[in-house]
Amino acid sequence: MVQIGDAAPDFTLKNTEKSDVSLADYAGQTVILAFYPGAFTGVCDKEMCAFQDNLGKLNDANAVVLGISVDSPWANAEFARKYDLGFTLLSDIDRVVVNSYDATFVGLGGIEGYVCANRVVIVIDKNGVVQHRWVAENPGVEPDYDTVVAFAASL
Fold first, then answer.
1. Cβ–Cβ contacts within 10 Å for residue 151, how many?
2. Which of the four CATH numbers 3.40.30.10, 1.20.1090.10, 3.40.50.720, 3.30.300.180 does domain 12-154 have?
3. Is the entire prediction scored with pTM above 0.90?
4. 148, 132 in Cβ contact below 8 A?
5. Is residue 29 scored above 80 in pLDDT?
6. What is the pLDDT of residues 50-99, one digit of tens each?
7. Catalytic residue IDs
8. Residue whose C-alpha is closest to residue 140's, from 51, 2, 36
9. What is the mean pLDDT of residues 107-120?
10. CA atoms of 51 and 72, how far apart (whole Å)
């Protein structure tokens, strides 16, 4: 499991345009990895909109948000369009990143065996070190956005 103080594992995933995006692309910036179970699922909608609402503060602090789910690039693109999200959504369709960050949830919506991202927020500093990790006790629980934003801005 990736813990506070660990080097954040690099990854490369597809964005909504099906282009490769790597964590290494953001070297020198604070990065918030916002894992979410699925687009258009109520609480995920609220979470991504909350990050969007705080994007100005985060950008002022040289921090970026990367939303990560196991959804397809097409689903994420529609999700971003519907909510006018100004940050990158990434598709972990092979579940490599959710596994490497220990951010999985099994059985969402009562579908036995279905593996998706749990609601997990990781803050990585400009040197690539994990400085904050929050994991929902279940996917219906949201993070304290003010705490995440303040923490990211403090780095």
1. 18
2. 3.40.30.10
3. yes
4. yes
5. yes
6. 999 999 999 888 899 999 999 999 999 999 999 999 999 999 999 999 99
7. 44
8. 36
9. 87
10. 20
> Which candidate, 88, 146, 145, places its Cα nearest to that of 119?
145
Going from N- to C-terminal start, the domains of the chain cover 12-154
User: Computed from CA positions of residues 89, 91, 97, 99, in that sequence, does the dihedral angle turn out positive or negative?
Assistant: positive
Q: Which of 38, 23, 40, 20 is nearest to 83 (CA)?
A: 40
54-59, long-range: CB < 8 A, 24+ apart: 54/145, 54/149, 55/86, 55/87, 57/149, 57/153, 58/32, 58/149, 58/152, 58/153
Measured between alpha carbons, how far is 54 from 144 in angstroms, rounded to an integer? 12
**d(Cα 10, Cα 47) in Å, to the nearest integer?**
24
Geometric angle at alpha carbon 31, from 26 and 37, rounded to 5°: 115
Question: DSSP H helical segments within 42-128, as ranges?
Answer: 43-53, 55-60, 73-83, 96-100
Q: Please, are residues 9 and 101 in contact by the beta-carbon 8 Å criterion?
A: yes
| Token output for 133 | 């990790």
If pLDDT is split at 50, 70 and 90, which confidence band does 131 have? very high
